[in-house]
Amino acid sequence: MALAAGIAGLPGAGKTTMFNALTRAGGVPGRENVGMATIADDRLEPVARVSGSPKATPAALRVVDPPGFGAAVLGNLRQVDAILAVLDGFTPGADPDAALETLRLELLVADRDHVERRLERVRSQAKSGERALREQVELVERVLGHVEAGRGLGEWPGALPPGLEPLTTKPLVPIVNGPGGVDAKLEAELAELPEDEAAAFREGPSVLDAVVRALFDALGLLVFFTANENEARAWTLRRGGTALDAAASVHTDLARGFIRCEVIAWRDLVECGSRAEAARRGLLRIEGRDYRVEDGDVLTVRFQPGRG
Ligand SMILES: Nc1nc2c(ncn2[C@@H]2O[C@H](COP(=O)(O)OP(=O)(O)OP(=O)(O)O)[C@@H](O)[C@H]2O)c(=O)[nH]1
Ligand SMILES: [Mg+2]
Fold this sequence. Notes:
This protein is α/β, with parallel strands linked by helices and 308 residues long. The chain has helices at residues 15-23, 44-51, 71-74, 96-125, 131-148, 184-190, 195-202, 207-218, 243-250, 252-256, 266-272, 275-280; strands at residues 4-8, 33-39, 56-57, 59-65, 82-88, 172-177, 221-227, 232-238, 258-265, 285-287, 297-303. It has three domains: 4-91 and 171-218, 3-Layer(aba) Sandwich (Rossmann fold); 96-155; 240-303, Roll (Ubiquitin-like (UB roll)). It is flat and about 65 Å long. Guanosine-5'-triphosphate binds next to α1 and α6. Residues 15-16, 29, 67 line the site of magnesium ion.
């Protein structure tokens, strides 16, 4: 599944407006909205062109926009991979730094509640007297002490107890919403126009690209491509991911039946004009499942269908 970013921010900071600008999904105030934000990548079109792919599909991030604020609402973000903090920068006298501080505290409170609930559960399980469970109670108690001292779980030394889904370990990407930052309201309006009209109005790249880029960096992602006679496509992968990880993110069958992977750097492919020419010049490499994928690789996974 695509990686997900959750939007957090004080009431009325412009979260849903930002959601609509990012996803064009027509999110409604007052309920949870989920949509996809595409990741613009200039390399995709040339890769599609030299591969004879009639269709080019960019990579995307899932975006979750919960309504409002507070520990319970933030709890809806436990499954996302990064948090986009939308800070009011448009109302007169707005103080984005203070808003970010409030948000950090609220994330901490939400995690304290979360650890407390976990502690109750393991305590009642530990009544059986099993040693491993008693040890877990002690560990969760120490973790609770850490959070109560005002420190996020990203600063917890060592492994966290199993079953926790903390918020304060997630990358937090602050975005000031308003003139001078990212004008979400303007971008949400432009998102309803055809792409070329919006671009003409902006006189430059969309500032939303910078938001997506910041999330992308916070998540430690790279992009790889697949391209064939049907479709060229960009995919995200965590940096350090292998050819097998890449195959799995395309389709589980590709990972199960993985035989080998053909790799061409996107620039080599575009400069050669075709896979055949890249191969002739020795720029196509055959790699195994443990190959560490690099940003911009064009991958062709050879696999045995129906295995596993
Ligand atoms: N001028 C201006 N107004 C904005 C901007 N972003 C949002 N607004 C307005 O602020 C109000 C609240 O925006 P929402 O996007 O609903 O805020 P929210 O954070 O989702 O609100 P809750 O989910 O209720 O907490 C709306 O009237 C928006 O039109 C902006 O960048 N500039
Ligand atoms: Mg909202």
